Amino acid sequence: MYNEKVMEIFKNPQHMGEVENYNAIGTVGNETCGDIMQITMRIEDGIIKDAKFKTFGCAAAVVSSSTATGMIIGKTVEEALQLTNKQVIEELGELPPQKIHCSVLAEDAIRAAIADYESRQGK
Amino acid sequence: MEKSIYLDHAATTPLSEKAFEAMKPYFCEMFGNPNSQHVYGREGAKAVSESRAKIAAAIGAKPSEIYFTSCGTEADNWAVKGTAWQYGDKGKHIITSMIEHPAIYTTCKQLEKYGYEVTYLPVDGEGFVSPEELEKAIRPDTILVSIMFANNEIGTIEPIKQLCEIAHAHGVLFHTDAVQATGAIRYDVKELGVDMLSMSAHKFYGPKGMGALYLRNGLKMEKFITGGEQERAHRGGTSNTPGIVGMATALEEAMSTLEQDAAYVASLRDRFVEKVLANIDDILFNGPKDMSKRLPNNANFSFRYIEGESILFSLDLAGISASSGSACSSASLDPSRTLLSIGVPVGTAHGSIRFTFGKHNTVEDVDYTVEQLVSTVRRLREMSPLYHKK
User: Fold this and answer.
1) How far apart are CA B195 and CA B185, in angstroms?
2) Helix (H, G, I), strand (E, B) or coil at B211
3) CB–CB contact B384 A54 (8 Å)
4) Phi-psi region at B61: left, alpha or beta (left = phi > 0; alpha = psi -120 to 50)
5) Distance (Å, whole) CA B217 – CA B61
6) In chain A, what are the domain boundaries?
7) Residue A58 a catalytic site member
């Protein structure tokens, strides 16, 4: 049901863990739904210097977390806010229809982390 | 493909070689319709009748009490809907359990739309239906009690004889879904006392597309599949001769070595359970802890902090085929009704895997699976925001 690219990323996910000295953290989803994603970032001068994820969820959730995290590193906060789950799916090639909702998690987690960063900055 | 270890025998089993050989002549040579009045028909009719006798003998029934169906689900549908239709003027209340297979559960849910009332009995922490609870649930308008013989997810073997006696003491018919039990546990329908019993061939190394319903002689039962005069005019549709022959051959074979096979499969399962519990923390072993009260092939675990599909998929990549009761493996978001019914918390239920062993598995399969499972669980927990190393 998953394509080769998804399987490869699942076997060897990138950007997994927690950024040391992060100044942005976002956690979305809940255990009851079976999906939780946490993203931590180090943002400096409006640029996401580093980002890492941790995910409780199915393979699609893990793979879209890893991919989305990779896609925002080096980007500006504004650019990261533009990221949609559609772009994550495009990057992966495809996801089975019943797994589309798993990719929304990453988009939400990134927004939550940036909101956290902004509140820390007193914005 | 490197390794390939099949640990999903509750889903289906490979067809026995013996059954396959027995089926072959009935596809191209002896293809006659068993209802036809010529030599081709007679060959088919003879095969069907001999097969019926073998299946009857395997469960202590008379051949006239065995009705072939297209699968276990059809047999379950027939038992429940047939009873509802036949005895609906006597009452419209049915009792079943919270942990039935969807073949019974969704059939009962459907009947609720047509004016029937259904009581879904709760189960205890190991999946057992309580005889006292059953007795309390019986009402004057109760027409059927349907409780599974053994649970497909957690392997609990229900006290069928006792439950049946309670139903009968109140003049209520009793059906049991013996799809997982048949071929794995030796039973005798007369000793159990059940009025109806469902089975499915592909769970005991028989072919897919074959089931049977035992209907006690003398029991009036409305038809489910209407049509011709097949199955003593109780179930229309041309007999699946090769399927019937394959089912009977497989069951006869399973019964002839049942005790050895069950002991062997249980020894693999026990080794597996012991090693998993010794090597992985924060897990629940779901179902009866007393192994004599669960199906010999079944092990079911919930791994905390991680999700079932990820575990299943990781095992699959390592060549191990198991099954998940998890939400993400199906279209629904709800975790297993059975696991929730035995009190597994929703979040934990998401991380549940069922391993069901078979007679072709080996000790090496068990050890390799434990090794892969340990590393998979470790890897996924490192990835989980819920897990904090102790």
Assistant:
1) 19
2) strand
3) yes
4) beta
5) 9
6) 4-117
7) no
Residue A76 DSSP symbol: B
Q: Which of B183, B250, B199, B252 is nearest to B20 (CA)?
A: B250
Q: Residue B85: name the closest of B288, B270, B224 by CA.
A: B224
Start-to-end C-alpha separation, chain B? 38
DSSP 8-state secondary structure symbol assigned to residue A84: -
Domain locations along chain B: 17-256, 258-383
The percentage of residues in chain B with a pLDDT greater than 90, rounded to a whole number, is 95
Q: Which of A4, A9, A52, A56 to mutate to test the interface with B (most CBs of B within 10 A)?
A: A56
The Cα B120–Cα B47 span in angstroms is 40
Of A27, A37, A59, the CB nearest to B309: A59
- A48 and A72 in contact (C-beta within 8 Å)? yes
Residue range B271-325, pLDDT digits in tens: 999 999 999 999 999 999 999 999 999 999 999 999 999 999 999 999 999 998 6
C-alpha of B221 from chain center:
23
Q: B342: closest CA among B153, B177, B176? A: B153
Contacts of B350 in chain A (CB under 8 A): 31, 34
- Torsion-angle region of residue A57: left (phi > 0), alpha (psi -120 to 50) or beta? left
The count of C-alpha atoms lying within 13 angstroms of the C-alpha of B321, restricted to the half-sphere facing its C-beta, is 13
Candidates 3.80.10.10, 3.40.50.1370, 3.50.50.60, 3.90.1010.10; CATH matching A4-117: 3.90.1010.10
CA atoms of B222 and B144, how far apart (whole Å):
14
ipTM over 0.90: yes
Please write the tens of the pLDDT for every residue from B30-84: 999 999 999 999 999 999 999 999 999 999 999 999 999 999 999 999 999 999 9
Phi, psi (5° rounding) for residue B312?
A: -60, -40
CA distance B311 to A121: 39
List the single residue in A54, A60, A98 with the smallest CB-CB distance to B383.
Answer: A54
CA distance B127 to B282: 21
Among A13, A54, A59, the residue with its CB nearest the CB of B313 is A59
Task: Report pTM.
Answer: 0.95
| Matching CATH number, B258-383, of 3.30.460.10, 3.90.1150.10, 2.30.42.10, 3.90.480.20 | 3.90.1150.10
Architecture, CATH, for domain B17-256: 3-Layer(aba) Sandwich (3.40)
Average pLDDT over residues B219-232: 96
**Is the pLDDT reported for residue A92 higher than 80?**
yes
Nearest to B244 by CA among B58, B41, B17, B71: B71
